[in-house]
Amino acid sequence: MSDSNISDRLKSLRQKLNRHNHLYYVIHRPEISDQEYDVMFQELKDIESQNLELITIDSPTQRVGAEPIKDFKEASHPYPMLSLGNAFDDGEFLDWHQRTSGLLEQDEFRMVCELKYDGLAVALTYEEGVFVRGATRGNGVVGEDVTLNIRTIKSIPLVLDNRRPDKLEVRGEVFFPKSAFTRFNDARIASGLDPYSNPRNSAAGSLKQLDSRITAQRPLDIFIYGLGYAEPMVHSTHSEAMEYLGSLGFKTNPYNLTVETPQQVIKYYKDHLKIIESLDYDCDGVVIKVDRFDLQNHLGTVGREPRWAVAYKFPPNQSITRLLDIGVNVGRTGTINPYAVLDPVEVGGVIVKNATLHNEDYIRKRDLRIGDWVLIERAGEVIPKVVKVLEERRTGIEVEFHMPTRCPSCGQDIVTPYGEALSLCINASCSIQLVRRLEHFVSKNSMDVEGLGIKFVTVLVEKGLIDDVSDIYYLCDSDLLELDRMAQKSVTNLLEAIDSSKSRPFYRVITALGIPHVGVEVSELLTRKYGDIDALISSKEEELIVVPGIGPKIASSVHAYFRNETNLQIIEKLRKAGVILQDQGGHVNRELILSGLKFVVTGRMADLSRSKFEEKIKGLGGIVSGSVSSKTDFLVAGESPGSKFADAESLGIRILSELEFLELIESNLPVNN
Ligand SMILES: [Zn+2]
Q1: How far is the CA of 429 from the centre of ligand 1 (A)?
Q2: Shared fold status for 318-415 and 590-666
Q3: Would you state the pLDDT for residue 365?
Q4: Is the separation of the CB atoms in 425 and 433 below 8 Å?
Q5: Which of 180, 298, 400, 667 has its CA 20 to 30 A from that of 443?
Q6: Pairing of strands 634-637, 598-602
């Protein structure tokens, strides 16, 4: 290619990639497949790597992060980032509205309602349409320059088209999506790290990484909620400006709404309080803004708070109530789990009657006594928990709790395995455990048998039609017709649903077995490693332990499960019934892009210890060895590499820096040497 062809091609690739990026991350309407995107991205990277001088800061390749920095520079805000006054109930909001209309000398004025995201406020500056600076709020006047980290957030445009003003500053809230947060924490736990406490903290932690390559691996997202300034300024209202920013490619929130009356605001508040649980980001209220900029200016600010906006906060996620009793239920593995019976109380807009107490240790550590006043918290979709006891409210009539000595279902003795915090019913024919196991077996993530809910599962067990989970495949017409209120039609439907569950993917069958500590993700790992039930049954504990993502606890649990005669009989019955017990393929092994490739790692890595780094390679299907030979495919060299570097060079082995390696796996393309 000639020089001008190269720069044309680069330009066109960047334009296309930026456009598809917007379609995918901002409006969630992709037009091309991930593979097509990856191919274009790879081409761009290839051309850039041969023409380093042509790399621009707005190139999509620059989202992968850059070399770590020592410290963040200060970033002062030309216009301060204000904080908002709060209203905690309808009355306080109506007070604000009345005050505002008094100052404006008009009864009604248009307002915009927006959700108040619980993340980190940032200001993004664009000059001549190019993203040049990202700053945190800091104290409102001076924040920190986190440009490199902001650049890795894929829903932020790096370039704007010609409709943009010469200078532009937009403001938004960076957040960690709730779903991604759960996965992120699972991965942290699996690799022995402490989980983050909530999405907001992990968004903050990610945004304040000195090494933007780490930020690049976090799925941060943003909602733009306002204009900092624009030169020239052409819009006269907030709602127009927001619509314009959306058209420039910024991600704005679909729930923004323009309203005329305070009653409409209250309705917006009530309607949205009902849906916040279901959103993939945390919100703690509604922000109400006066729409017209001239009215905003007229109202001005008091201290750091604008008079033209108010945050109407959602009810807190904590409440205080009485612990009326402690109950116990029996889990599918026989664990006896205590739970709190509470005096019903509203927490974050929902009535809470029960809270989890995990085990006896949990109760002892908090010194919970029946009759105590307790602080309850609901966080995200998690079951409510008891945060602490209000000891100062004790009157002396509170009663200590003792775990029952017999199973509440079957009456047999409860045992506590040595060194463990749990209590168990080990009676194999304990009927409530069978109900729970069957409930798990037919659930959505397992065999997904439609129409088989908890009530019916209980009836099947109580009527003695089920002795173990595999028995559902041996039910017949006459069994079911004898049950109360079962018509031929529903019997036929149910039997069909049961029959069609036989062809669920193999990993779902593993999940369905209910092996302790083995959920969907571990089941997928086991499927990849072993492929069918017989290989899994004869797996050895020492070979399970070394599978990335499977620690000693899981390995021993899997091993013990397949050494149990009853479990093996269940599997034989499943096999006879025609349940598919081998991997039929079909699930995408995106993660195994290094499959079969041989790696040697040398030197010091920036963000991971050597052993964690090697685990990462193994987790992607690669093989790690200690010394370089002619069979080695890649040497990954960190800082101060040793003699292996020279060995690899002399043998002509491909050498990757840590960053190149990370880019390689970030691209998610299968790697060939
Ligand atoms: Zn029992």
Answers
A1: 8
A2: no
A3: 87
A4: yes
A5: 180
A6: parallel
Fold of 506-577: DNA polymerase; domain 1 (1.10.150)
| CA–CA gap between residue 503 and residue 14 (Å, rounded) | 44
Closest CA to 314 of 100, 94, 115: 115
Over residues 107-152, the pLDDT tens digits come to: 899 999 999 998 999 999 999 999 999 999 988 889 999 999 999 9
The pLDDT value given to residue 589 = 46
DSSP structure string for 35-48: HHHHHHHHHHHHHH
Identify the three-state secondary structure at position 309. Answer: strand
Joined tokens for residue 432? 């409530």
Kindly give the distance from the C-alpha atom of residue 270 to the centroid of ligand 1, in angstroms, as a whole number.
Answer: 45
Fold of the CATH domain 318-415: OB fold (Dihydrolipoamide Acetyltransferase, E2P) (2.40.50)
Q: Cβ distance 632 to 613 under 8 Å?
A: no
Task: For 419-445, give the DSSP string.
Answer: T-S--EE--TT-HHHHHHHHHHHTSTT
Q: What is the CATH number of domain 590-666?
A: 3.40.50.10190
**Cβ neighbours for 106, distance < 8 A, ≥ 6 positions apart:** none
Query: Is the pLDDT at 590 greater than 60, yes or no?
Result: no
* Closest C-alpha to 65, from 122, 8, 146, 1: 146
Burial of 219 (0-12, 13-18, 19+ CB in 10 A): middle
Question: Residues 11, 16, 70, 116: which is the catalytic one?
Answer: 116
pLDDT of residue 470: 95
Give me 629's structure tokens.
């030979």
pTM of the full structure: 0.55
Q: How many CA atoms lie within 13 A of 492 on its CB side?
A: 3
- Domains of the chain: which residue ranges? 3-64, 86-313, 318-415, 431-503, 506-577, 590-666
Q: Kindly write down the DSSP assignment for every residue of 448-466, as one continuous string.
A: --TT--HHHHHHHHHTT--
| 3-64 under CATH 1.10.287.610, yes or no | yes
State the amino acid at position 299 in one-letter form: L
Backbone angles phi, psi at 383, to 5 degrees: -60, 140
- Contacts for 255-258 with beta carbons within 8 Å, 24 or more apart? 255/114, 255/115, 256/112, 256/113, 256/114, 257/112, 257/113, 257/114, 258/110, 258/111, 258/112, 258/113, 258/291
Distance CA 70, CA 86 (A): 37
From CA 582, how far away is CA 579, in angstroms rounded?
9
pLDDT, tens digit, 9 for 90 and up, residues 331-346: 888 889 899 999 998 8
CA of 440 to the centre of ligand 1 (A): 17
Active site residue 489: no
Position 203: which residue type?
Answer: A
Summary count for the chain: helices (H), strands (E)? 24, 26
Give me the DSSP letters along 111-154.
EEEEEEESSEEEEEEEETTEEEEEEE-TTSSEEEB-HHHHHT-T
The token duo for 491 is 């019997």
DSSP percent split of the chain into helix, strand, coil, nearest 5:
40, 20, 40
Cα 559 to middle of ligand 1, angstroms: 24
CATH node for 431-503 = 1.10.150.20
Amino acid identity at 638: G
Domain 86-313 fold is D-amino Acid Aminotransferase; Chain A, domain 1 (3.30.470)
Q: How far apart are CA 564 and CA 437, in angstroms?
A: 16
Report CA(472)–ligand 1 centroid distance (Å): 22
